[in-house]
Write a structure and sequence with these properties.
mainly alpha; Arc Repressor Mutant, subunit A; 6 helices
Amino acid sequence: MEKNTISEQQAVSMTDELQLLMENNIALTNAMQVIGGKWKLLLLNSIRLDCPARFGELRKKMQDITHATLTAQLRELEQDGIIERKVYAEVPPRVEYKLTPLGITLVPIITSLCDWGEAYKNRMV
């Protein structure tokens, strides 16, 4: 009866592949922690298209988002260095959001996702 074993070389190769897969997943996980979720990419796209964007404008564009969720998502994007927030000393208060230099690096990615989504929609019609 023959044993079903793998050679030491095969085991090393599998370990290298697993390590590479884990490294790729870590990078993707890092990206998803910053831009993942239901609203963040939509917010970034809105800010990209109407820069600077005011809080009220963002709220109108995303009617299903709650005030608290919008505030939380914007704060997270600000903490991650993707957007910056500017508060004007006016009554009523005016707050504007724009992409930071780091956030601007996401523009080609967001554009590609929009293009892919349009192509996918057209494929389905």
